[in-house]
Amino acid sequence: MNSIKTVGVLTSGGDAPGMNAAIRAVVRGCIYYNLKVFGIKRGYQGMIDDDMEELQSNSVSNIIHLGGTMLKSARSMDFRTEEGRKKALKNLKTRGIDALVVIGGDGTFTGARIFGEENNLPIVGIPGTIDNDLFGTDYTIGYDTALNTVIEAVDKIRDTATAHSRLFFIEVMGRDAGFLALRSGIASGAEAILVPEIKTNFDQLELFLQTGFSKKKTSSIVLVSEGDEIGGALKIAEQVGKDHPEYDVRVTILGHIQRGGSPSAFDRVIASRLGVSAIESLRNEQKDVMVGLANNKVVLTPFGEAIKNKKQLNPQLLEITKILSI
Fold first, then answer.
1. Fewer Cβ neighbours under 10 Å: the N or C end of the chain?
2. Looking at per-residue confidence, does 250 or 215 come out higher?
3. Does the predicted model carry a pTM greater than 0.85?
4. DSSP state of 127
5. Radius of gyration over alpha carbons of the chain, in Å?
6. Which of 30-44, 65-79, 183-197 has the lowest mean pLDDT?
7. Quick one: pLDDT at residue 236?
8. Whole-angstrom Cα distance, residue 45 to residue 50?
9. At 252, is the secondary structure helix, strand, or coil?
10. Pair 148, 264: CB distance under 8 Å
């Protein structure tokens, strides 16, 4: 019989739209199954500082539509130490917390895996990152909202680019993964997309400039993932500007606007599904796993696999970008 009585929930790492919807689902899922639930502020640092409070159903009213996270988020250097983790465990035990739900990305799950194994503590993870780079789930919370934010921004930039016949390099988030750049590039009609998974070939970029932009002379949009091995949009634009002084080259770095804003309906729904599934997984004696979605079904992936395995870009989408850039 499952012995879990009290669950702690936290958000860690970079915030993502939809985290509040996930918190809401976890809290109300706990209450539905007669479990106590504590909100842990500022991620793992809040565990160490004993910054926690018991949550009720009305504690999470009117947050499903809000971006950011009501529990705040932080990266904790203290939690990387054995001393810090021992202090965190002591605070959990004092409050009777015997299981955790952690919402975040691979760094969050790495910490959860270590902490869970050290203390035999049941922990379930919910994938919350705009990068969509976690193995074991088709979508992560926040990815869809970030996509729509990028598309809206690129649409507006294209208006001014067309008015002045400019070549715009637009940088989006994705330090190690090009999912956001690839899908938003296709959706916004970008003429070229540069992602960290594929080495930037200046010969290919030059071919695009000669056969694409130079012939159109209206405007062109190039989407660049911030993790591109050359150094992002600024470095690439600088090189293109040197090679082609005749082009009116501009750079826009979208930055943290991609993290903010009200979550899309899609993100609200998957956050709600995964939040409830996390509680049900704990009740079914699951631990050290991430809940995710595969083919629209909830699946469980061990933390070790979610962290270690690299999620691959869809090769069909990569091929489509070549066809549509003509």
1. N
2. 250
3. yes
4. E
5. 22
6. 183-197
7. 85
8. 8
9. strand
10. yes
Domain 6-141+263-308 has CATH 3.40.50.450: yes
For CATH 3.40.50.450, list the domain ranges present in the chain: 6-141+263-308
> What residue has token string 């739209």?
17
143-259 CATH fold: Rossmann fold (3.40.50)
* Residue 292: closest CA among 310, 274, 268: 274
Q: What is the residue whose two structure tokens read 């035999």?
A: 120
187-244 residue pLDDT tens: 998 888 888 887 765 666 666 666 655 555 566 888 998 876 677 888 888 888 888 8
Residue 95: count other Cβ atoms within 10 Å of its Cβ.
16
Please give the structure tokens belonging to residue 109.
């799950």
List the catalytic residues.
131
Q: Which residue has the tokens 């992002």?
A: 232
- Under 8 Å between Cβ of 68 and 38: no
Q: Please report, as a single letter, which amino acid is at residue 230.
A: I
Starting from the edge strand earliest in sequence, which strands make up the sheet with 220-225, in order?
192-194, 220-225, 167-172, 249-253
Structure tokens at 73: 């988020």
Both tokens of 184, joined, read 């938003």
| Packing angle of the helix pair 143-164, 179-187 (nearest 10 deg) | 50
Residue spans in the chain of domains classed CATH 3.40.50.460:
143-259
